[in-house]
Design goal:
three-stranded antiparallel β-sheet; single chain
Length: about 220
């Protein structure tokens, strides 16, 4: 885990995150032409050039990997969002609906939904509002606390997901065309390693007292 020295260390990390975000947002172009290196591996020449200017030591490998991961995530979400949008739901609302379907009859509190989906409680509330207006979700009082509410998927919501299942599977088959099962297993594993590293880093920074040396 990298050493972070008190306030200055946190400030450097914040600046790094903002700088990386600016470079990735500006230079990752999903419509750009990709190239192959000498080993037959794909890379984005535009990203490599931009990251070469950004990296102090010229080592762009990790920066390019981060950009590629973000680009891939955007590509998958854009495809999924287009499919959901054509049926009247945003990608975020679709995510909430799927989670409520998994929760079944017990439903889920808005706080639990927000934590599970990695969004703010306000965003989760807004998405549940949208789904409730469309008749896909309902709010019920929590049985153990009448002041709290649980969101539950309705029969109409289940039917909506049933209709959306086949188009989604076709879309995912198209976007992952040419991938073997072993490659998909490895892709999932590598992506979740990134998630685990981020979780560890966030826990490490949260546990470090302000102004102390955490080297």
């Amino acid at each position: 885990m990298p050493a972070v020295r008190g306030v200055d260390g946190r400030r450097r990390l914040t600046v790094y995150r903002l700088s990386l975000k600016i470079f990735i947002v500006k230079y990752v172009n999903n419509d750009g032409e990709l190239a192959e290196d000498a080993d037959g591996l794909l890379y984005d020449p535009q990203v490599r050039s931009a990251m070469g200017l950004f990296a102090a030591d010229g080592d762009t490998l990790r920066l390019e990997a981060a950009a590629a991961a973000r680009s891939a995530q955007r590509a998958v979400e854009r495809l999924r969002g287009q499919g959901a949008g054509g049926r009247g739901l945003s990608a975020g609302a679709l995510d909430v609906l799927v989670r409520l379907h998994s929760a079944g009859e017990p439903g889920a509190s808005l706080g639990d939904l927000a934590r599970a989906a990695g969004m703010t409680p306000r965003n989760a509330t807004g998405l549940v509002d949208t789904l409730e207006r469309d008749g896909l979700v309902r709010r019920d009082p929590a049985p153990d606390d009448r002041r709290s509410v649980l969101a539950r998927i309705t029969p109409a919501g289940v039917a909506w997901l049933d209709d959306f299942r086949a188009p989604t599977q076709r879309a995912m088959a198209a976007v992952f065309h040419g991938f073997t099962d072993a490659e998909l297993d490895q892709l999932r594993h590598l992506c979740l390693r990134l998630v685990r590293n981020q979780q560890r880093l966030e826990a490490y920074l949260s546990a470090a007292p302000e102004g102390t040396d955490t080297a």
